[in-house]
Amino acid sequence: MPVADRTRSGTRPLSPTQAEIVQVCADVVQQLGLSRSVGQIFGVIYCSPRPLAFADVVAALELSKGSVSKGLRFLRELGAIKPIAMPGEGREYFVPETELRRLLRGVVQSRLRAPLQSGQARLRTIERQLAAADEPDREFLAQRLDSLQTWHRKTLFFLPLLQKFLGSKG
């Protein structure tokens, strides 16, 4: 491949199909309330026929090093990408997790389980505060809080079932 067909880092530019896949991933991730760049990073790794290093991702997406670093760290914690060692290379390379079940398990662990557990304590704190406060709408707020606690209990009840379905240990 001629040098003109490569980016400054030596990687090939994205093909039109790869660019579309990257945009789909970015759109989906953004709809989930996450940073668009996280979706772009996953997308470029997902549609690459070879493992990509940090510099490859920066060059392919023209994102800042800080944004790529944070995105890679987040995707690793989520289990959406895996680091691999390449023979003779000192750099870390990344490949995507392509099994949907494992991807969903990572999302459940990081985006649902931890917030739900901390939410339980917060709801109890709010309940104590409401009982002690001179709140003009106390009865109304108590009903709403009760409703939130019910939703929370139901979600906590179903979370282990979802994790079991996804092959995760509760």
User: Please, what is the CATH homologous superfamily of the largest domain?
Assistant: Winged helix-like DNA-binding domain superfamily/Winged helix DNA-binding domain
Shape: elongated
Q: Spell the H/E element sequence.
A: HHEHHEEHH
Helix content: 55-70%
Instruction: Provide the CATH top-level class of the largest domain.
Output: Mainly Alpha
Number of strands: 3
Alpha-carbon Rg, integer: 22 Å
Report the structural category: mainly alpha
**Average pLDDT:** 85
CATH topology of the largest domain: Arc Repressor Mutant, subunit A
Low-confidence stretches: 1-9
Number of folding domains? 2
- Terminal Cα span: 49 Å
Number of helices: 6
Please give the largest β-sheet: 3 strands, antiparallel
The appropriate CATH architecture of the largest domain is Orthogonal Bundle
Strand content: 5-15%
Please give the order of strands in the largest beta sheet: 1-3-2
Question: How would the blueprint of this fold be written?
Answer:
Elements lengths: L15 H16 L4 H11 L5 E2 H8 L3 H14 L2 E5 L6 E5 L3 H33 L5 H28 L5
Antiparallel strand pairs: 1-3, 2-3
Helix pairs in contact: 1-2, 2-4, 3-4, 5-6
Plain-language structure description:
This protein is mainly α. The chain has two domains: 3-96, Winged helix-like DNA-binding domain superfamily/Winged helix DNA-binding domain (Arc Repressor Mutant, subunit A, Orthogonal Bundle); 100-165. Helices cover 65% and strands 7% of the residues. It contains six helices and three strands; from the N terminus they run ααβααββαα. It has helices at residues 16-31, 36-46, 54-61, 65-78, 100-132, 138-165; strands at 52-53, 81-85, 92-96. The chain is elongated. The model is unreliable at 1-9 (pLDDT under 50).
